Amino acid sequence: MMNSLIALLSIGGTLVIYTFARQLHIRAARTFTLPVITSTFIILVILLTFHIPYETYMIGGDWINELLGPAVVALAYPLYQQRDILKQVMVPILCGALIGAIVGISTGILLARWAGFDELIIYSLTPKSVTTPVAMAVTESLGGITPLAAVFVMIAGIGGVLMSAGIFKLFRIDHYLGRGVGLGSASHAMGTAKALESSLVEGSISTIAMVFSAILVSILTPGMILLLM
């Protein structure tokens, strides 16, 4: 009974916070006001302020987490809408996703080694640029720490979204193809959500890049770890 009450409070509180964060973003549309960022920050502050264990929050949070899969599947609808355009740019998307996967894996390994991190941390960090379920599966196969992998995925997603506007401006990337591939291959679902704010075409490209990146990272990671470690 107590667990059911905690679950309801967790789910209800999260929905209220997200609704507030979404309204804030509508009124002040900035990169740092994205609902996933502001709502995550608010939840963290509440948990720390009231000394609520993360495990307690996740009694209800796990139910929300289970919706991640259906949410990713729902991205198929804009793909269907933009299928004619996507057919024309499929090769550039594949090439961009491949390069993004190689750069994401290699930089994670090399920078972590340069910083002197333990192998367990490196194994958990390497698949940071793909969606959470894939990253956790890859990390588990490598012998890393799966909860830590989920944290790195969040950091990569939020960091990519926050820095994307500055990077696009610095390198003068204003084409929907480059922006979509960059966001999808580097910042997975969070980047795709950001891309969808620009246009359905950019969001659809980001979705395909995210999917291909997940496949490529799963295939390439073990070999690249052997090569670079």
Which regions have little confidence, pLDDT < 50, spanning 5+ residues?
none
Please tally the β strands and state the result.
0
What is the chain-wise order of helices and strands? HHHHHHHHHHHH
Instruction: Please identify the structural class as seen in this structure.
Output: mainly alpha
Beta-strand percentage? under 5%
Report the C-alpha radius of gyration, rounded. Answer: 18 Å
Helix amount: over 70%
- Tell me the number of structural domains: 2
Number of helices: 12
Largest sheet: none
Distance between the termini: 49 Å
Mean of the pLDDT scores? 86
Instruction: Indicate the overall shape.
Output: globular
Q: Layout of helices and strands, plus pairs?
A:
Layout: H1 2-27, H2 35-49, H3 54-65, H4 68-74, H5 76-81, H6 83-88, H7 90-114, H8 119-125, H9 132-142, H10 146-170, H11 176-198, H12 200-228
Helix pairs in contact: 1-2, 1-3, 7-8, 7-11, 7-12, 8-10, 9-10, 9-12, 10-11, 11-12
Descriptive labels:
229 residues, mainly alpha, 2 domains
Brief digest:
With 229 residues, this protein is mainly alpha-helical. It is built from 12 helices and no strands.
Notes on the protein architecture:
This protein is mainly α and 229 residues long. The chain folds into two domains: 2-66; 76-228, no CATH class. 84% of the residues lie in helices and 0% in strands. Helix 7 packs across helix 11.
